[in-house]
Amino acid sequence: MAGNSFGKLFNLTTYGESHGAALGGVIDGCPPGVDLDFDAIQHELDRRKPGQSAIVTQRKEPDTVKFHSGIFEGKTTGTPIGFVIENTNQKSHDYSHIKDSYRPSHADFVYDKKYGFRDYRGGGRSSARETSCRVVAGAIAKQVLKNLEITAYVSSVGTMKLNKPYSEIDLSKAEENIVRCPDIEMASQMESYIKEVRSKGDTVGGVVSCVIKNVPVGLGEPVFDKLHAELGKAMLSINAVKGFEYGSGFHGSTMYGSDHNDSFNNDGSTKTNFSGGVQGGISNGMDIYFNVAFKPVATLIQKYETIDKDGNTVEMQGKGRHDPCVVPRAVPIVEAMAALVLADYFLINKMYS
What we know:
By secondary structure, this protein is of the alpha+beta class. The chain contains seven helices and 17 strands. The strands form five sheets. Strands 1-2-3-7-4 form a five-stranded antiparallel beta sheet, with helices on one face. A five-stranded antiparallel beta sheet has the order 10-9-11-15-12. Strands 8-16-17 form a three-stranded antiparallel beta sheet, with no helix packed on it. Strand 9 and strand 10 form a beta hairpin. The longest helix has 23 residues. It starts with a strand and ends with a helix.
């Protein structure tokens, strides 16, 4: 299986399966001398881990990260940083019913056809549990990018949408509720809705929005390695993501150029920011903001028809512990992937200085 690494200079390679002994990774290219806040790294994992509230999967995992290399006396050495997160609460028997059958809209079918066999326990490598490794690396990347502020939040669940620009929202309130929506009233409605969906054995999707502040001018490369293109790749690599838009996004296609153009101030900043902080694939110093759309979780706790490996129609009902809506736990994953992209381009940009 290829495709387990992300980044050019600040590079992450992950390994492990949902129900294996552990997951882990190797971070290559991290600059030496970075003072690491290990509590902050663990906090990011705690934001992602299962079992943290009544509206997420009830799998109980401490998700404690252990570092094996690349760190000495609390500082990065510049050598590869190896880490591991042990699995402690696997219930693999919950997945025995899908050993020979495929869940609709899941990776079961394509993994089996591509590789000739698959780890059906929790989806194996296709499980979103792999993202725990991204969160570790992203937490370190955040500490490399000390001056940047990367804040993601839930802006919609199903048809329930927070119709306010981020500039009118106190983003710090997102961590004050289990949905991670910064509007407390909307968060309460979203929570009730997710619980209702779960009670029916169904799932629902949503959108995570992200804002990056204090980005310097000049991050990103022209043509194929545009900053927004790499952010899009990073977000679309996250499990269950179906869409990415930055700046004015699809709404921008309905506007006149005379309204959409971001006029300059004398200091080079712009009066508006429909560009989303990126022009010509390079950061312009304004806030970068984007939306990431997540589909409903494919595994349903209700009866439905599917096929087995021989093409026979069979009836299936999901078992095990699954998220009725992934977006509350996806918030730190979106932040982590954004941090990995920016750390990579920060190091690439140093080649010009």
